[in-house]
Amino acid sequence: PDRARVSLRLGSRKGAAGAARSSVARRLEYIAQTARQRGVPEENMTVTEDFSRVEDTYQMEAEVCIIFSDFGKMQNVCNLLIEKLGTSVTISPPHFYHTPEAIDTLRRQVCVAAVGNTRQKAQEVCRLFGQSLGKPLLIREEETKEWGGHIDNHLSHSPDSLTLQERIQNATAYASCRVFAVFEIKGKENRRNKLL
What we know:
single chain, alpha+beta, Alpha-Beta Plaits, Translation Initiation Factor IF3, 2 domains, 5-stranded antiparallel β-sheet, 3-stranded antiparallel β-sheet, 37% helix, cytoplasm, nucleus, IRAK1BP1
């Protein structure tokens, strides 16, 4: 995966509306400042707020959603916020995912690698017969498969108890590609003999 989304939840319940709002606002500003100082762009942070009256008190709740492209930076930000804000903030486990661009790149890389493997195998066969491999005459992508990651013993873990590495593995995308290729075969005297 090339992205991780982390949600941070915080709230306050006070007798006065202003006190509930300001308590949450201070922590929201600290979270945003901490993320910005560590290079998280403003457009990667989304804040939603909910203000309500519960019995004789005012309740302010907020959620900050931060999208990270650097997982080390994500860990640093989350660790610092837990250290500084303690139990006044709840940080969800990261949700790892792929952007459409990353999946497109994976598909292209897998196809190029399959063509490279095909060419290498054809060269080895030609060497066995004392021939040399010429230019490709036809290359066709026949089948592409994609699948998600897995965890070997995933039944013993609940989704919330997965380690960071297990979460990354679980979100990893895999792809395979089968290609059909026809190459020109050249004899020792560099003459076209037959097709492989």
